[in-house]
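Q: Structure tokens for this one, please.
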Amino acid sequence: MLRITTHALFLCSVSCLVASSAFAQDEEPLFLGTLLVEAESDETLLQNGYVAESGRQATKLDTPIAEIPQAISIVTQDQIEDQKPRQLLEALSYSAGTSTSNFAFDQRYDAFYLRGFSAFNNGFFRDGLRQVNGPSAWYRNDPYTMEGIAILKGPSSSLYGVSGPGGLVNVVSKRPKEEPFNEVRLTGGTDDMAELAFDTTGPVSEDGRFLYRLTGIARDANSPYPNAPDDEMLIAPAFTFKFTEKAKITFLGEYSDSTVGGTYSYYNPSYGVASEIANSDPDYNDFDQTQYRLGYEYEQELTDMVTFRQKLRYSDVDSDLEYSGFYDTGFDSLARYWGHYVEDQHNFTVDNALESSFRTGEIDHDVIFGIDYTDSSYNAYLAPTGYVSASATDAADADFYASQGTEQLGIYVHDQLSRGALNVFVSGRYDWVETTTEDASRTITETTDSEFSGRLGVSYEMENGMTPFANISSAFVPNTGLVFDDPSDPDSSRPADPTRAFQKEIGIKYAIPGTESLITASIFDIEQDDGVVFQNVDAAVFGVQQVQVPYNLRSRGFEVEGEANFQNGLRMIASYTYIDMEIEDGVAGTEGNQLSATPHNEAAIWAFYQPQVGPLSGFGFGGGLRYVGESYGDDENSFKNDDYVFADLTLTYDLRRIGQEGAEIQVNVKNLFDETGQTCSAGYCYRYDGRTATAALQYRF
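A: Here is the predicted structure, written as tokens:
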């Protein structure tokens, strides 16, 4: 196993950035001739290469990223295209403060953590609207449907309402473009992967008032995990109609039907050990999921100073989960059990906002005032755990297991005040949340919560390119599902209390003079009360493999991240994260310990280079290293997970060099070192997926 120290990887990242910067400044600008039209629309997120310049994702106002007094990571369209991530987790894996390997390899769920806190239930947004996941019915998010991903670090409830203490992820969907863009991509690879993807956009009418976009995927594949398919059919239409110069509406939709593995776990023969025996049953391991979303974004300039925006979306996901596993019979042999779980989840959300720009004395104001509403619900059904056969379990009725409905209403106001180089961001919001929970015995519990959340941030733009910043912010998160006060007792369940959190953060942003770049470094301290974490339980007793338990946590740490584009054809990103994640109150024996599967140190570097002249012109070379440091395998801190280094590579060739205009070949290799080691969370251990490779032929016209 190849290992390097965190400090070495971090120093390499910084030195590469500095060296590339110096080289770029010595070079004369190169004129490349005709450039291909790019896929991103720049409608709500203005980006260039690996560097995002401004967007609405953090403040709901078009704001330069460097001015925002908050640590923010942006995964741009170019980074997605260069790395070709298979799922959202891979797209996030190079960003600071983001943990994506807590459960090693699992294609069912995008289980990401921000600054040590789980963010997959209440910290996921798409196009600025909350996308609530159920306990098992999680929305799938294919990176091919995205033109960018914004990661907001720390509490963001003051604008977005219900969202996690560690921050939120806001995915930007592909939108119609005024310039025609067409792409067809054929991909093959390991695990019998075969995929066709297409993306087409442009004007429908000659006057440019009606624009369209249509994105699609058809994939037939297996998975590195035994007996787990990776199949998907997806279509995502989008339309924009401009009523006038000052009013337009954009419709955004998606429908997908996918099948992945029902389980990705391995039999644990003893505590803290994952065997190489996959729990999957070759004849009973499908996780079928059908989902759709349909919504619109409307905006109208009411006056020269006031703009009205409305976003609305309805989404639905239906999941059917077949899973199985082994248990020790006590006679030196293993026997199998089977489970069947069905869940449907529904979301309706709407956000109405008025934004205005004006001046009072010597102070400029950019203000947004809004009201949003979310209605979210899920229903779950569970068949009795079977010990006879898969067919017998499949034939058994799935009985009602639980349901929950949540209505949330929020009112918010945000003011960006600026005077010269000084920027002050002030946000305030009040939320009302009503939750109705029904357990397996049909007992109904109704709860009502309300809370104020706020943020105060300050940044100062210095002439040398540095922008120091600081903020304090709070979070309010009513939680989905039930918590179990005793993870050994299935009768100890109750509706989860709302999570509350408070953050203090100071940092600095720096744009390297003479380059397109942004480096962000920050120190943070987040205190959380009434949080929830997942604990593995005996599926034979609970009927499911994991349940939520209540925890109070405190996260303190340091992050640094840089993105840069250079004139010599090099673009790169680098990041380092240190986190001290302390359990202040949890299950017996955990107080004062570190939260399991939360490394103190994580670091990453990725670079992509396209020679502009010479014999290698037309080629593109990319690669990255990701370091995941040691962590504890359980909350009792009785054993540790090893640290790992993962390597990814890419190679591209522009077939325009041999007369095929618009055509390109791209090869990507994930986990080059074929790392299949284990990592453990809450005492249960999982394995990484090993090396995979794909080759794609892409044609743009």
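A few notes: The mean pLDDT is 91. DSSP finds six helices and 39 strands in the chain.
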